[in-house]
Amino acid sequence: MSEVTDLTVLEIKPEQAPVLYVANGLDQYLELIRQMANEVPDLTTAKGRARVASLSAQVSRSKTLIEKPGREYLKHLKEAVKPAEAELRRFVTECDNLRDEVRRPLTEWEDEQERIKADQQMLDWHTEALADNELWDKALADRFESDHEIALLLNDKFDRDAAEKKAEAERQRVAHEQEIARQAAEQARKEAEEAQRIEREAAARREADLRAQAEQAEREAREALERTALLAQQAREQAECEKQEAIAAERLRAEQAEAARLAEEKRIADEAAERAANETHRKQIGTAVVNALMSNAGLNREQAIATLTALKDNRIPHASITY
């Protein structure tokens, strides 16, 4: 597997992140990297040691190709959680405030009971102190009795007021609890509707994502088929071009061989023609010499031919025939 092929195979697109960065989601890429590095180079050679270093670096680069988009996806998830955390903090704060507001009447009632209890305790201490003091005179005793009767009357009024306040507080508590229950039911209804809306939108997004992924896969498959068809067409065209080039080269070789053959035949024919013309020329000159010897030297034909032969063979000094 070449490094260029590895980089293409290990590329992870953002829309693939949700289905890949899950438990065991990256096993296929891990297996590809293992297969890529599944070599045992010879460490006794420089080439083998260089190959080990190259495989190690290639594993590191492959790791980065998978890790980088994963880190980006994780960052995106953390950013997506922040609004939920803020909303949860707001919800908890509002509930705490509501809890304190709901309990305020009870707290105020408990504080009032503590005050009444303290007043009663002071009155008890005062009564005990008066009862133990033998030096109090009759007037003081009468005054105490009068004050006591007034206190009892005041206590009765306070008890009535307290009972009315308690009844009113109870009515307000019941009304408040009913309002809280109504608000809770309304909030639950709204939350349920919101949850259903969110789920519908999420389902629509998931469906859109799946549809987009399917369309992307179909588009990539179509593009792969088109690339394969284009490569096949280019291969056929290349083979046809090479075939035509081979035919042209063979034709050229045949033409060159034919031209060489014709040139050789022409050369042989020209040489033969030249030899024939030369022979004819020599015969014409020889005939002229023989005739001249017969006419001018009184030689018969045999003697003239013998003289011509001696001249051709350069056997007569200072005499030659020019052709």
What does this structure look like?
With 323 residues, the protein is an all-alpha fold. The chain has a domain at 1-102. The protein has helices at residues 3-9, 17-20, 27-36, 46-132, 138-296, 301-312. The longest helix is centred in the last third of the chain and has 159 residues, at 138-296. The chain is rod-shaped, with a radius of gyration of 63 Å. It starts with a helix and ends in an 11-residue tail after the last helix.
Task: For the structure shown, list the relevant keywords.
323 residues; mainly alpha; 0% strand
DSSP summary: helix tally: 6
How does the overall form come out from the CA principal axes?
Answer: rod-shaped
Number of strands: 0
Question: Beta fraction of the residues?
Answer: under 5%
Largest sheet: none
End-to-end separation: 83 Å
- State the assembly state of the protein chains: single chain
Helix content: over 70%
Low-pLDDT parts are 1-8
What is the overall pLDDT average?
78
Rg, Å, rounded = 63 Å
Structural class: mainly alpha
Order of helices and strands: HHHHHH
